[in-house]
UniProtKB/TrEMBL annotation:
Transmembrane segments: none annotated. This is VOC domain-containing protein. CDD domains: VOC_like. Residues 1-122 form the VOC domain. PANTHER family: BLL2941 PROTEIN (PTHR35006:SF1), GLYOXALASE FAMILY PROTEIN (AFU_ORTHOLOGUE AFUA_5G14830) (PTHR35006). InterPro entries: Glyas_Bleomycin-R_OHBP_Dase (IPR029068), Glyas_Fos-R_dOase_dom (IPR004360), VOC_core (IPR037523). Pfam families: Glyoxalase (PF00903). PROSITE patterns: VOC.
């Protein structure tokens, strides 16, 4: 079971604004915070997301082929999360819509540091 996923960032304040807005739409908030790290989620709940300045002091980089999927409540929330991401400085990787078969509906975007996420529902 995944407890949380961490993204490296080069600008913690910018990452905080992006993920604060995403977390608010998903009904959660910050659960841990230091000068170099912020985590969003609900203690005892599902997996959380964190943003951190890299411990080694080197620049944050994006994992090629890495993506984190955020489970939305419904199609409307998929659209809202996508809009929030773009409004908060994220970039489009695929607008909301059906993907494949089986009722998978998703929107793809990157955070301001280039980390790829999606918001989705199944069936």
């Amino acid at each position: 079971m995944i407890g949380y996923v961490t993204f490296g960032t080069s600008d913690l304040a910018r990452a905080a604004a992006f993920y604060d807005a995403i977390a608010k739409e998903m009904g959660t908030g910050r659960m841990m915070e230091t000068d170099t790290f912020i985590a969003w989620g609900t203690p005892g709940g599902g997996a959380g997301i964190a943003a951190t300045l890299p411990y080694d002091g080197k620049p944050a980089t994006v994992g090629n082929g890495t993506m984190v999927a955020l489970e939305a409540k419904d199609k409307e929330q998929v659209h809202r999360l996508y809009k929030i991401a773009i409004t908060q400085g994220g970039t489009d990787e695929g607008p909301p819509g059906p993907r494949g078969e089986g009722g998978f509906y998703a929107a793809y975007f990157r955070d301001p540091d280039g980390n790829k996420l999606n918001a989705f529902i199944m069936g």
